[in-house]
């Protein structure tokens, strides 16, 4: 892996060369996951993406259909990577999400499945991938001890796990658990494998317009962020490319939220009579 920098419009642009690395991105067929997978492809990596169903369209990398909530599917997924490439250097646990599901009046099974997808599944994938990640790096491939931590697990977290998440309580609780899981694995697996979390705030994907009430809704939501816009898949991918590069950072939570969300009391206080 090589990192280079070049001066461009807006300042220094950093690019990464992940040639020779094998990267798994769960949920990598659309949205943020597809953006991450595409960025690793552009950086020269061999990329495997997984989803429960074949989307029937081109995906950024080699597709393996798998339900990451199912231990047997996870074993098959990582086993196929091992058989095909003989190594695995980076896992991006991106698969997740939740419908709007207030706790009152919704089924216990629905909330259990949300927790399984957003917390249990990343644990299963990381656990199964660990032996390959721990052997990552050119020194390990030659039969010697690795010079340092080259295997990397990146959890895609959410600001819903750091603040109240009404309407998606199980999702928020699972993401909070995911953040803690990453910190625990970072301590448990050091120095062989690094584990970090990208805590994503409001993000603009192909589903954003429908979720936030159309383009105008997206614009209004972006205006509520100090950076003036929502995060893009490219923003998340840039953080993942950096965290995947061999280095010292482990157990970290990278807050990718554009400065956070401007609190509602600011709008209330500035209104009539405020």
How would you describe this protein?
- It is a single chain.
- With 274 residues, the protein is an alpha/beta fold.
- It has a single domain (2-270), classed as Rossmann fold (3-Layer(aba) Sandwich).
- It is 41% helix and 19% strand.
- It is built from 9 helices and 9 strands.
- Strands 5-4-3-6-7-8-9 form a 7-stranded parallel beta sheet, with helices on both faces. Strands 1-2 form a two-stranded antiparallel sheet.
- α5 (169-189) links the parallel β7 and β8 (193-200).
- The N and C termini lie far apart (54 Å).
- Keywords: NADP, Oxidoreductase.
- Pfam families: adh_short_C2 (PF13561).
- One of its GO terms (molecular function) is oxidoreductase activity.
- This is NAD(P)-dependent dehydrogenase (Short-subunit alcohol dehydrogenase family).
- It comes from Planomonospora venezuelensis.
